[in-house]
Fold each of these.
Amino acid sequence: MSQEMTGSEIVLRALVDQGVDTVFGYPGGAVLPIYDALHVQNSIRHILVRQEGGAVHAAEGYARSTGKVGVVLVTSGPGATNAVTGLTDALMDSVPVVCLTGQVPTHLIGNDAFQEADTTGITRPCTKHNYLVKDIDGLARTVHEAFYVARSGRPGPVVIDLPKDILQGKGSYTPPSVNGHRSYKPKRKGDIDRIEEAAAAMAQAERPLFYCGGGVINAGPKASHLLTELVKLTGFPCTLTLMGLGALPASSKQFLGMVGMHGTYESNLAMHHCDLMINIGARFDDRVTGKLDEFAPHSKKIHVDIDPSSINKNVRADIPIVGDAAHVIEDLTKVWKARQYRADRKKLDAWWAQIDEWRGRDCLKYQSSDTLIKPQYALERLRELTKGRDDVFITTEVGQHQMWAAQFLPFEKPNHWMTSGGLGTMGYGLPAAMGVQVAHPDALVIDVAGEASVLMNIQEMSTVAQYRLPVKIFILNNEYMGMVRQWQELLHGGRYSESYMDSLPDFVKLAESFGAVGLRAEKPADVDGVIEEMIAVDKAVIADILVDKAENCFPMIPSGAAHHKMLLGPDDQADNPISEEGMVLV
Amino acid sequence: MTERHVIAVLVDNEPGVLARVIGLFSGRGYNIESLTVSEVDAEAGLSRINVVTIGTPMIIEQIKNQLDRLVPVHSVRDLTEEGPHVETELALLKVAGQGDKRVEALRIADIFGAKVDDTTLESFIFRLDGQTEKIDRFIGLMKPLGLVEVARTGAVAISRGQEGI
């Protein structure tokens, strides 16, 4: 008979047995017993955030930069409801997170008790799964199961709602079981016949294209390595989604840049004109496909995804393969080699010649200026001044700066790029950067931010100060919600309704008030000095880069348009007004 | 083209499981024509949800895949797609009236094979099982004859042959 423990002790023991070393949280009445138990142990480090939303984003940053499950601990009621945005974000971007929420004692549930909320009800649609623990005997098993569910298959957030009386009660601990889950058994190995079929299609393709996404990152660094090998072996071009950046080194000659609404011209045209699309771990998101009925009209599509519900959701797959990206890429490579397949050199060369012609348009070029800091220039300088370092982690907020970061910063490895893709959560970047820095204390962690987004979770500067996290917040400050302003310019006749950021703080003084270093660049000549100092200082830094307020993010596929109808720059914009049909889309 | 499909879902009988299934349908904008749920194996703690839905083939495939990835779901079977199956529904109808209408109601009930579960001098409660369309027809006929109230279970279905879910 195992030893009796309190519910709180059981929870912490289960976390330790699941390999947890860090928890991001905020205490409150219902979780006081866990905080009490945390106080008398040394295995788990608790990072006290300043708002629960920050805790979830920090756990996401931690999870995405390590491949481990991120853990959150919050109280009942407002603690849980504040976590909802982060949970939804983690669900959309398939980030493994376990969120422990306090709950009022079981006998008070349903009585509208103080700080009571129907947490399992509220979080059901924004989690992969959730639990309300009503029996202490099932507590340890539930925690272990939550970790299994969060990390297996397509990863996602899991909530465990813990009534206070369960945390204070006594029960026995159950170690993690080696037996699988009784109903949830995601398929990891792809069907070999389908993989044979896919390899044969690849050997016959004239204009093939790899289109890979976050599924490759989630399958672990091995998957990215295998993908890089396969891309090399076949000689095919490869594009990546926003979530997939880093799955193939940006320096690879076969990398066409990001695909989608603000992806490169060559990527989007290659998507439109390819005759074989090899989608690995991407989900045909509307930001990638544009107008669905004109999407890649001439192509046969292979779709590899661990989540069967991603297949045939938006785009019909000709060769669907359900499985883990690493396993499928490995098998695909084996078949390709065993059958001694090789691409038709002549046809592939012609395809590359076409792609090189598209590349020649130099779609990321912008009008440089001697007086105004172009945001693209600031990022180019950041890229140059961090060149050669392999310990650079980038997080972003959401908006123009995010797209520019995706376009201009090079990602050589997986797990070094943390951005809110699916949900598009402003305020993600600063807390996510904290989570990354906690996991990688010596790394250079940079939050590429906009001045509007960063204010959404600016309270986390206090957390940054408390734990002396040397995160660098690189604000491309255009005094506008830039992407909102861009859409208002393109779609709403330049009526800039409520998108101007009035009454901004002095970011230099704001940094200083939190014990961080504040820097400012006002003209192009300042930029290098600011970046160099930002990197050199062994402290948190807010670098306020005052950029051109009118700059728009190009290239752009207007909403409702097909890939080949990209706008390449301001001149294109005037010639191609966006259709009414596109206006209703987001 | 939309199609009507009968889908059987075997789930853990645990709190919230029905809310998960229903939330999936409402959250993703799928249709529910009818839905029934009941425990079917107390020892193993399993419930069966029978859901009738309407959608394009792509949507129907989505519904099945989305259901299948819910953690407490053990199996999802599309009985319509899998072929021959037995499908039935139960309805209780209260019909009130006197004189000719009352006689006519009883006569039609007899033709349909409906049972009289209860009667007063002014009303009947009929019980009818069978295909959904048969029940629809019966209800249609009872309307002018004094139909007061209907309770229906929605369809339950099971595949033919020796294989189980």
Amino acid sequence: MSAITLQHLVKRFGAFTALKSMDLAIADGEFIALLGPSGCGKSTTMNIIAGMETPSEGRILFGERDMAGVPMGRRGVGFVFQNYAIFTHMSVRRNLDYGLRMTGRPAKEIARRTSAMAELLGLTDLLDRPAQGLSVNILQRLAIGRSAVMEPAIFLLDEPLSNVDAAFRAVMRTELKSLQRQFKQTMVYVTHDQLEAMTMADRIAVMDHGVLQQVGTPLEVYNTPANTFVARFIGSPGMNLFTGTLTTTSAGLAVDLGPLGISPPLALAQAAAAQQAKGAVIYGFRPEEVGLAPPSEPAFDLPLSLTERIGARTILHLGTPQAEVRAVFQSGTAIPEGLLRLAPAPAAVRLFDAGTGTALLVA
Amino acid sequence: MTRSVAFEAFRYVAILIALAVTLIPILWMASMAFKPVAEWQATGANLTWIPNDPTLDNFRFLFGESNSNLIVALDRTAGKPILSSLLSATFGTILAMTAGTAAAYGLSRFGSGANLPLALIQLRLFPPMAVMIPVMMMWAFLGLMDTWWGLALVYGIVTLPFAFWLMKTFFDEMPKEIEEAALVEGCSRWRVFIRVTLPMMAAPLAAASLFVFILNWSDYLIALLLTTRNWVTIPVYMASLSSSMTGQLYGAKAALGLIAAVPPVILGIVIQKHLVRGLTFGALKQ
Amino acid sequence: MTLTDTQPLIPIKRAKDEGARLGFRLTLPAQLLVLFIAVFPLLMQLYISLTDWSPLSGASWPQAWQFWNSFANYSEMIADKRLWSALGRTLFIIAICVPIEFLLGLGLATLFVDDFPGKRVAYSILIAPMMVVPAVAGYMFFMLFQSGGPVNDILSWFTLDPVAIAWLSDRHLALVAVMVTDIWQWTPLMFLILLAGLVGVPADQLKAAALLGASPWQRFRTIVIPRMKTIIIIALAIRVIECFKIFDTLFIMTGGGPGVATETISVYIYKVTTNDLIWGYVAAIALAILIVLSIGAVWAMKRLAR
């Protein structure tokens, strides 16, 4: 009943196309994150699911039911706005029980459900306080509680943690996740913060410029990005990507990386994938997958230009800004002075078609 | 919000009705202004919204040309009342804006004259009639009765609250950094006010001045009491046209009404962005 | 020379002094004007209100003491039936016109919240009436309400019979005509102010309410109106105060007549001032009004401050 299906969804605002034919199937009870940079269309998608916008083309189905023409008050969705949209002229209680009152539930039921939700979210002491002037953390809980008390089958959250301070964000992530497990709602979560998406979501839908780039579990999206956008967007820092041409060397199929001066050979699996290439390829590897290469192996031979120490990790920037390799090491690792010889683990190399950017996948 | 078709239809019908109700009186007066004498009193089936025989006679009549269809002639033309309205409204505006802007700046930047906001609002609270007798007495004593400058003085005082409150909210909203930069450079505060602040405030000053001008131009009661013959303003002159004549001079008065009413309406539409602020003494902005 | 701690303060203090001096000079003109129009007239009114003076008496006003009658004017005021009915009539007009203007203005404002084609033009036209010179508006409606005029003409379309109501000669209909004029001229003001208030209601909260199942009417009742409380009070206060002063349109339309059928408080005072010329009495009335209104204003301010 609360599975969501988006079929060929297109949304235009005048001359501007916000969504270009999006297809997505969200399972009942799934926690899916819509992840992408500003302007990618994730909020538009969610507004369409909620009924605040109508699609220019395409359909939305909740379960089997086509939602065209169903007004937003009747869709049974909960919605948490980025700025919470709390009714600041009412008390906390009147905010919490607003939906129940407007839909005419009996007074006893309203009281019972309200106090239960307040209890759950730690708002009981604040029930009769005016909502105006409360801290952001409390407002956020109130926003969630106000929608949750209606027990919607589908819960939509539009970057709810972006205004919350960092310490509290971690707490809220776990709370939201446990709420979702408890009520078994289908949760659609819009964010530009990949850490949130990676830690909370069952699946992530990565979007850019109105196009769905990839849908998959966090691990899938991380390990097997579908294209160079996802490869660069996911991971902090994103994947190192270099354009090169396939050549044959004594060690087998390799990628000539031109200005970088090396032609690393490809492992068997990648070599097989490389057969699908129609020209130049993009050679990619995650900064975490880099290690010091033995002298006999081909490696990136680059001077260290910048070191970023972020507590447990250290990010090294090597080479020039035009041809930069980023490497991530645990902070305790000993790093030799001078030129470093680094190579990625062969199995971690990912290849992409240089023309389209799509991943060349191991068949 | 996406609205239903029924709502959109209702909206259009309601707005059309509102527009019709708004325009009908104005259009009737406009049509009457261009009607010849024969059509002034047409009733029933002869009543027309567009003159059968449009003419500029009414306007000519106001400015001295005698109308062969009217047995009466004006003892004076509309020229002087128009001049009187212009002079008294303009100079009243200048007075109100000068005193008001200065005081608003003084309060906004230096906190001087803290009693003014309340005092000026109280000024608008009282019915003009309740203060006019002493004003008439004073004006008679000072020789200001029946003069455009005497009128301008009253206008300046009566619209001072609007000038003050409008400019005060504008000054309060203006960031102080630019002034402070000039102060650091060594300008005296007075020079800062004249050379820096006022030029930056040109647009709000213009809007406030137009607003005050509209109010002064629209006055009737004060002019009715303070002018008798020489410097009557347009509304007083217009009202007097029938009391000294036999029969209603519909067309001529309608023409005069157009002359009096059209400029402020146009000015008001020009400054419409500032109307809410002006009418609520800065309590609300648009 | 050594720099001491106090030296940096001197330029600042000088600046502050300079500011205070300039501020005083800047506010001086306004203060003088207010003094001129508030204090002197008040004292003069007080003086002659205690006399039986009239400009016809032959003496100039400084010699009004010759006609001293202490508080006789004030007691006469209380018994003055015409005064009280004028006051009642004024309050009646306020009680009818202001609510109607409010409701019509609010209704129109709700239609203007969204964008639609032609909105700017429609808006400009709809605010025009309040900028029409009130005296001219009075004459416009004088013409409209003539027995051979357009109002009767339009009514005839509906009743199919020729309608020839003599609006301005009938005691009750004249009042109706006057109120219609006021509503025509000042509904746009309510529209203007209430629209500004409506637009200030956060759209997100309205959407959130809709998603929680609230109908348009429920959203209006629980979110729009409560958030507009202050603006509504301001709009009503402004309109009530201005309506109390009503003169120009009414006087041009009916002159206060027929008889005293449309005589409001301002018209009454005007008539006594210019026809009967008993200025001592009028001064007493004026002072009484000023005192009552001042007390009312102070009381209202105290309530608002709470």
